[in-house]
Amino acid sequence: QVQLVESGGGLAQAGGSLRLSCSTSGRTDGNFIMGWFRQAPGKDREFVAALRWGDGGTRYTDSTRGRFTISRDNTKNTVYLQMNKLKPEDTAVYYCAADFQGPNRALTIFAQEYHYWGQGTQVTVSS
Fold this sequence. Notes:
Elements: E1 3-8, E2 10-13, E3 18-25, E4 32-39, E5 46-52, E6 58-60, E7 68-73, E8 78-83, E9 92-100, E10 116-117, E11 121-126
Parallel strand pairs: 2-11
Antiparallel strand pairs: 1-3, 3-8, 4-5, 4-9, 5-6, 7-8, 9-10, 9-11
């Protein structure tokens, strides 16, 4: 069983930075993947970034590439989302997600393919 515990988030001004953390317990082998999604009021849950635990491979959505960085700390079983150059449109509840995926597949961006989820953390960016 995989459990995810998020921390971080809060309020930032446009152009500022925030860092989200997601700690996981349970199995984290080479096929383990972790992702970040976000959901703004009235909108669908949106893929932000993902990382493959085994080789550290990453994937980003176009709107966050170059501003957000997903990384991991193997010793702490924690994945981070460093968010820089924040924009008001980044305002949303951010969710950490995880699952296991074969090594020959591209990191999935579909929420329904992640079976483990954190509780969500609010990120608010003021203009």
